[in-house]
């Protein structure tokens, strides 16, 4: 589980969401970022269910994009901690890419048998 690179990416995304949640002043976005933290860190333990794991990487990315759209409408100036969910989206993208690569590898090996 820990030897897979996507596990490291998911943990880094969870840490970025967590730090963003602690620095956020709005209670609603703090709760949302806390849920995204739990989702990213909980996704580490779904290593046997790669399609589900890949889908659960997309969900926090979409919520983070909505976060930035709402943030741009409400507050034009950003603090440094508001960029942390964007860093988490980058790690989730890398994680999903590695998960899909693993799934393709497993399916190709099943085809050879």
Commentary on this structure:
It is a single chain. By secondary structure, the protein is mainly α. Helices cover 79% and strands 0% of the residues. It is built from four helices and no strands. It has helices at 5-23, 27-42, 50-74, 84-112. α2 runs antiparallel to α3. The two termini are 24 Å apart.
Q: How do the helices and strands line up, and which of them pair or pack?
A:
Elements: H1 5-23, H2 27-42, H3 50-74, H4 84-112
Helix pairs in contact: 1-2, 1-4, 2-3, 3-4
Helix content: over 70%
Low-confidence stretches: none
Report the count of strand segments: 0
- Helix and strand content put the structural class at mainly alpha
Main sheet properties: none
Shape estimate: elongated
Overall mean confidence score, pLDDT: 86
* Strand content range: under 5%
Discrete helix count: 4
The ordered string of helix (H) and strand (E) elements is HHHH
Terminal Cα separation, in Å? 24 Å
| Radius of gyration, taken over Cα atoms and rounded to an integer in Å | 15 Å
Query: How would you classify the quaternary structure?
Result: single chain
């Amino acid at each position: 589980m820990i030897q897979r690179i996507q596990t490291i990416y998911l943990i880094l995304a969870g840490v970025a969401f967590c730090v963003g949640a602690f620095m956020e002043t709005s209670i609603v976005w703090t709760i949302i970022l806390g849920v995204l933290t739990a989702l990213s860190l909980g996704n580490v333990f779904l290593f046997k269910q790669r399609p589900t794991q890949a889908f659960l990487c997309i969900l926090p990315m979409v919520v983070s994009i909505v976060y930035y759209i709402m943030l741009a409408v409400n507050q034009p100036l950003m603090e440094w901690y508001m960029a942390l969910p964007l860093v988490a989206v980058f790690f989730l993208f890398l994680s999903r890419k590695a998960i899909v690569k693993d799934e393709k590898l497993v399916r190709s090996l099943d085809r050879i048998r």
